[in-house]
Design goal:
The complex is a heterodimer of chains A (435) and B (352). Chain A has 435 residues and is mainly alpha-helical. Chain A has two domains: 129 residues, no CATH class; 234 residues, MetI-like (MetI-like fold, Orthogonal Bundle). In chain A, helix 4 runs antiparallel to helix 5. Chain A is elongated and about 120 Å long. Chain B is built from nine helices and 20 strands. Helices cover 26% and strands 34% of the residues of chain B. In chain B, a hairpin with a 2-residue loop joins strand 11 and strand 12. The two termini of chain B are 36 Å apart. Chain B is an alpha+beta fold. The chains are: A mainly alpha (435), B alpha+beta (352). Chains A and B meet through helix 16 and helix 17 of A and strand 6 and helix 2 of B.
Chain lengths: 435, 352
């Protein structure tokens, strides 16, 4: 440790490893995955080459190579060792198979009927037509629907099949037949072209800022300031009560809200005598759904701001309150002129912290409405989760999901920068000018 | 404006801090509430400005009963120990804050701020924030803020406690100057007898929630009503000896030194134990009644030197003298007490 300049770095190195592994790497990987078409279909490791029906369709649509597609999907019948072995395996008479091999090995036929005819010419031909058809079936050959591990294999197979390809045609075939994931910007093109995207973004901004302004900052301020002017006993009680939602397990907490809103729940039972049809109040209309979503999140979110703001108010010297009082400040003027200026930094902190956590939080929405009714409360993070990890059809679009989360990351960073600017962060953290 | 506390009582839950205190501060007078910590002096101040609610008795400003008037309505200026300047406002806005709350016009506020800033000598600092000011400057700003709306009374809560020694000296005379220039009635709360004596017209000395004595500084110094008051005023402090009154003299038990007492005290206290207080300036080499002891402590205060002289039974006399022939710690000295200036107290501490 001769050079103590680097001591700090050495000591921080283990922490650095964890920061990289658990904080930086996931973001980088998300960014990388966002530019791929990874999905359940492609798998996450490399793929193989299959001239499937959809890839042939792509060959015609994207490259206009109709005739090549035609040829690739053409079925041929070739008498080869492989087919002979398969016929034996399937239980054909070895004498027939041997004679077939001796006589016709290497022969190619356009149709199955041609093969059957050839078999019928054999001395040791099977007596039943069905057996003949079964043997003929073993020699069906086509490039289509066969899995090849490498580019060379599939191109080799095509060449063997007798189709001659130019370089561009080869490239096109490789492109359309590859089943693994590839790098692409398609995710973003899709994202910006879908009408749902815009709606989800509007939902997200509405959800984040309404919850933030009404509850996480607004209501938290009301709680902190009102408990500041209470005696310490009741003040402590009120603060504890508002912490309860925070320490209730989310599933239970949302379940209680659901019970409140069910068609046989508290609200329905209470409102029925007043002439309101029992109904699921939460999912009854988009307005209702949003009201519940914001209440559910706000009740949980307000407690953190309340704690931070309360302690910040506690940190204001008592003498400032006394001074403002004798200076003639009413309680409202005191809040405005003494408390609020001292809360700038905590408000910035809560605003940015809660914006980020609201942007990425969807668990309460997932549990409460699952984005319903009819996608009315579907927010960006929920869409991401559904696309990437919980698609109804089971086709999980990892790449598209990653692209969606990448947008969230960008929005988060942008908003943080804007907040720092708006609240004049440099000024807030400036060193005191007096020691 | 006159301040009158009439049977003023203050309790914190069950604890009575001030019990039926009477105090009158005359118009234009500056009075000091002097006492050790916990004696109730700050509580009294906070009750006068309305921050504390009164539990009994009345508080009058002039003839107006303000007992139940909120601090916002009381028209008092307060300078707090910590100055309590608003950290996010400039000096100008700090001083103008009370006027801004009363919605006075910007031009009017500016004019008044400039006027008061000139009086407390902080014109060049108006655009700074409190964090950019020295302690003395903050003090001046706090004073200006307290005075700007021409309050009926000015209350100062340990205003000099947070300043360093030289600034304290400077601000002492500054506060007094400003108080006299404005002619405002002022109450100074302090635990420092030098501050109280040098700044105020009268001192109210407090102990355990009661006013022990209220008098002009000089009177109080010369005629304290109790040993507590005598001990509080004077630096270095007075020294006490306990002994018996015999044949018109106070007899110091360990040396047998006889110090003559006034005839009146000698007659009434004959044969009783008493306490005598001797101020350092009245125990000098050329004093009349010689008493012998050992120099146990010396402290040079520049122009003068303080000596502690320990008597055989361990009691201590203090002497403050101009610098002269060297005396060393451990030297045996025989200096004299000016017994006419001796203060005699009974064993309960009351002046005889």
């Amino acid at each position: 440790m001769g050079n103590s300049k680097y001591l700090g770095l050495y000591l921080l190195a283990p922490a650095g490893v964890f920061v990289f592994l658990f904080f930086l790497a996931p973001v980088i990987l998300t960014a990388v995955f966002g530019f791929t078409n990874m999905s359940t279909a492609t798998g996450i490791s490399g793929g193989s080459y299959v001239a499937s029906q959809s890839s042939m369709l792509a060959l015609r649509d994207r490259y206009g190579l109709d005739d090549i597609s035609e040829q690739l999907t053409t079925v041929r019948y070739t008498i080869d060792e492989e087919g002979l072995a398969a016929a034996l395996e399937a239980g054909a008479d070895p004498a027939t198979v041997n004679e077939l091999g001796d006589t016709f090995l290497g022969q190619s036929y356009e149709t199955r009927r041609d093969v059957e005819r050839a078999i019928k010419t054999l001395n040791a031909r099977p007596s039943s037509v069905r057996a003949i058809k079964a043997i003929a079936g073993q020699f069906e050959r086509s490039v289509a629907n066969t899995r090849y591990e490498t580019e060379d294999e599939i191109l080799g197979a095509i060449a063997e099949f007798g189709i001659e390809l130019t370089e561009t045609e080869s490239a096109a075939i490789i492109d359309v037949t590859y089943t693994g994931w590839v790098f692409t910007t398609q995710n973003f093109k899709t994202m910006f072209s879908l009408p749902d995207t815009k709606k989800t973004m509007i939902n997200t901004l509405f959800y984040v800022f309404t919850t933030l302004i009404l509850f996480n900052v607004g209501f938290a301020l009301v709680l902190a300031i009102s408990t500041h002017y209470m005696d310490s006993g009741p003040a402590g009680f009120f603060r504890s009560v508002w912490l309860l939602p925070r320490i209730t397990p989310p599933v239970l907490y949302v379940l209680m809200w659901k019970w409140l809103a069910w068609d046989s729940g508290f609200l329905s039972v209470m409102l029925e005598p007043l002439g309101f049809e029992p109904r699921n109040w939460m999912l009854d209309s988009p307005t209702n759904a949003w009201t519940f979503i914001i209440l559910i999140n706000g009740m949980v979110g307000a407690s953190m701001g309340m704690l931070i703001f309360s302690s910040a108010i506690k940190a204001i010297p008592e003498a400032l309150f006394h001074a403002s009082e004798v200076d003639g400040a009413t309680r409202r003027q005191q809040i405005w002129h003494i408390i609020m200026p001292q809360l700038r930094w905590p408000i910035l902190f809560i605003t940015s912290y809660q914006t980020l956590s609201l942007l990425t939080s969807f668990e309460y929405i997932l549990l409460a409405t699952d984005g319903g009714p009819g996608g009315a409360t579907e927010v960006w993070a929920l869409t991401t989760y559904l696309k990437a990890l919980s698609n109804y059809g089971g086709a999980l679009q990892y790449g598209y999901g990653a692209a969606l989360s990448l947008v969230l990351v960008v929005i988060g960073i942008t908003l943080s920068l804007i907040y720092l600017k708006v609240f004049n962060f440099k000024d807030l953290t400036a060193k005191p000018k007096i020691e | 404006m006159r301040i009158l506390l009439d049977k003023f009582t203050k309790k914190f839950s069950d604890l009575t801090v001030i019990d039926e205190m009477d105090l009158e501060v005359r118009d234009g007078e500056m009075i000091a509430l002097l006492g050790g910590s916990g004696c109730g002096k700050s509580t009294t101040l906070f009750s006068i400005c309305g921050i504390h609610k009164v539990n009994g008795g009345r508080i009058l400003f002039g003839d107006k009963d303000v007992t139940n008037v909120t601090s916002q309505e009381r028209n008092v200026g307060v300078v707090f120990q910590s100055f309590a300047l608003y950290p996010h406002l400039t000096v100008e806005n700090n001083i103008g804050f009370p006027l801004k709350l009363r919605k006075e016009s910007k031009a009017e506020i500016k004019r008044k701020v400039d006027e008061i800033a000139e009086m407390v000598h902080i014109e060049p600092l108006l655009q700074r924030r409190p964090g950019e000011l020295s302690g003395g400057q903050q003090q001046r700003v706090a004073l200006a803020r307290a005075l700007i709306r021409r309050p009926d009374v000015l209350l100062l809560d340990e205003p000099l406690a947070n300043l360093d020694a030289t600034l304290r000296l400077e601000m002492r005379s500054e506060i007094r100057r400003i108080q006299q220039e404005t002619g405002i009635t002022a109450v100074l709360v302090t635990h420092d007898q030098v501050e109280a004596m040098s700044m105020c017209d009268r001192i109210a000395i407090m102990d355990a929630g009661k006013i022990i004595q209220i008098a002009k500084p000089r009177d109080m110094y010369e005629n304290p009503v109790s040993d507590y008051v005598a001990g509080f005023l004077g630096s270095p402090p007075i020294a006490f000896l306990t002994g018996q009154v015999q044949d018109g003299n106070f007899v110091e038990p360990s040396t047998g030194t006889k110090m003559p007492l006034s005839a009146e005290i000698a007659a009434s206290q004959s044969g009783r134990q008493v306490k005598v207080g001797i101020r350092p300036e009245y125990f000098q080499p050329d004093g009349a009644t010689k008493i012998a002891g050992t120099v146990s402590f010396m402290e040079s205060q520049g122009r003068e030197t303080l000596y502690n002289v320990t008597l055989p039974d361990g009691s201590i006399l203090r002497s403050i003298q101009g610098v002269h022939d060297p005396v060393h710690i451990g030297d045996r000295v025989e200096w004299g007490v000016d017994s006419a200036e001796m203060m005699v107290f009974d064993m309960n501490g009351l002046r005889l």
